[in-house]
Amino acid sequence: MKHLLGIQHCTAQDLERIVEIGEVAKRDRKNKNATNRGILANQTWAMIFSKASTRTRVSFEVGVREMGGSAIYLSSKDMQLGRGEPIEDTARVLGRMVHGAIIRTFDQSDVETFAEYSGIPTINALTDEEHPCQIIADLLSIREKFGTWEGKKIVFLGDGDNNMSRSWMWAAERLGFELVVAGPEMCLPDAAFRENFTKGNVSFSSDVDAAVADADVLYTDVWVSMGQEELDDAGREEQLMAFQVNDAMLAKAASNAMVLHCLPAYRGKEITEAVLEARADEIFTQAENRLHAQKGVMQYLLSRG
Ligand code: CP
Ligand code: NVA
Question: What total number of domains does the chain contain?
């Protein structure tokens, strides 16, 4: 695996290995002799972003620097890409100048085309289809708390048909843990997509109480993803409210359940202020883990080069 295009494209071994490298990166962050020190020396990585970002952008910029390389942040609006230059041409130009690319955009096919035409390691930093880098940080966070994801019940709540929920489904398919995607029927994936998950460990539910019973991880995300603002309507939000992560829901989960949110959070919508603040330590550790996980991704891709 030379590129990280999506969790769908990873094997269980890829995911386990990336998380392990990320764990070492976390442990050794301050160690001057860490194995990842200098592995990006003399390298420049391009970060092409067509959507806003705080965590992904900063974690990659800092991660590249801490591994000895430089990152160039390129807003697609300021590139000729934004004026219609084809992705194939952009990829062939950058492939001759930089050593890796980190892309946040709308169409999954744009990241895949870039990877094909550039020939350099290409990382999906979020598309409408998937957010693989976030999942890797989340897996690292779950293992940090529980020691394993095996045998855990993870419940994804809210908009069950977005990039985060889809990446979770692929992660469960590959790694075998139990995943319940819980949301109003209108926010669950269609039958054709569900057919990808046939092993029995991924299920879909609009019964919130059954979904969260004895859950080890309650996971939520914004109800309206970037670029999908047309979905934002009062009727949909009213239905989603039953899946809000709040104290009453938490009381039904396992007593040591973890609350995770990829952030940014909208308090009073997908999560209450009270739960977010009570669980701030684990949620912001999850955000910090983006940095360690990104290092795991880049080191792994280089090792497979
Ligand atoms: N969770 C996440 O990807 O955050 P950003 O949009 O801030 O990068
Ligand atoms: N589903 C969200 C994730 C943000 C990190 C979005 O795409 O906006």
Answer: 2
